[in-house]
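FIELD: query
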Amino acid sequence: MDLTFMVVLVIVLALFFDFTNGFHDTANAMATPIATGAIKAKTAVALAAVLNLVGAFLSTEVAKTISGGIIREGGGGLAISPEMIFAGLMGAVVWNMLTWLLGLPSSSSHALFGGLIGAAIVGAGFGVINYDVVVSKVLLPAVLAPLIAGTVAFLSTRLAYRITTRKGAVANPKRGGFRYGQIFSSSLVALAHGTNDAQKTMGVITLVLVAAGTQPAGSGPLPWVIAACGLAIAIGTYTGGWRIIRTLGSGLTEVKPAQGFAAESSTASAILASSHLGFALSTTQVASGSVIGSGLGRKGAQVRWSTARRIAVGWVLTLPAAAVVGALAAAVAHLGPAGVIIDAVVGTLVIALMFLVSQRNRVSHDNAISGLDHAGEVVEIKRRKKKRKSEAQPEEKMAEQLMEAGE
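FIELD: result
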């Protein structure tokens, strides 16, 4: 198969993955302010799309981790072909769409890493993987970042409620001001998402350009690659994020403004710091950890461990499962041009089928659910029994109204 055509095919598939990443993950940034009424859903998705595009231009450290860190490429390392990169991307896209369809909390980022690693091993052997980089910049951040973000969100929520609580268990009516602060904190999460997730696709495109010999090894993404990836994830956020936002249900709708502000601020801080250091983490995992932490920081919280286990299974399963799918696609691609065509046709049919299935149940908790929505369900808040309105005194009624507005 012509090398130029193969490179173009990989670039198109990479941008499609970036598009799926947009509607798979980015809606999480704007879910809590929509649930608390801080911003309208359509406006939130449009704002997230613009900020994703801006964020894509702010840093390239994560892209360099993908293009020159995880897979050894050039400079005495073992090279992999564009066909293998195509197979890895196909594995990532198929797994990404499947988990989105089934409502399994997962990471688009880990689907990408898994697909590339599986295809690279089949194409060039185990020695092609730089395991030190995988451990230090993928696996360790996957474990530590959600824990750190959750701890910060827990402490921030406790602090926010303590500062704004009045004597006599009457909440400060100004606590509702956190609702407006959420517009800023959610926007920061969307911006941070662009600095991390959009760069992963930049790294893949750079990797295939290096593998094809059209770009020197060790170089960063070209300007047109940055722009294309930023646009792809922004369009995905605007078109697909709206659909996911509509499906958010019992989890995030219970998040109060103070919790949402703390969770979003913690998420943005963790993602921005990781982007600066070149850590290719999962923004979904970080956001979920922050939501759980903020929920635990609210008085009367209980943990639903069954839901927590479901989230953990999704986190652990994604990378190896995507690696298996990528490896299978790479094995087929080894047949030559016919194998690449088979991968492309089968992958396209599978993706199209899953899309058609999702359209039959457009608003369903079973086939289109955000991992962050499940995170909200992990924490259950005990509610105090209220007196009947007929029995409550005017002062008590006023206190209840202030508490409801402040929460």
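FIELD: remark
The chain has 15 helices and two strands.
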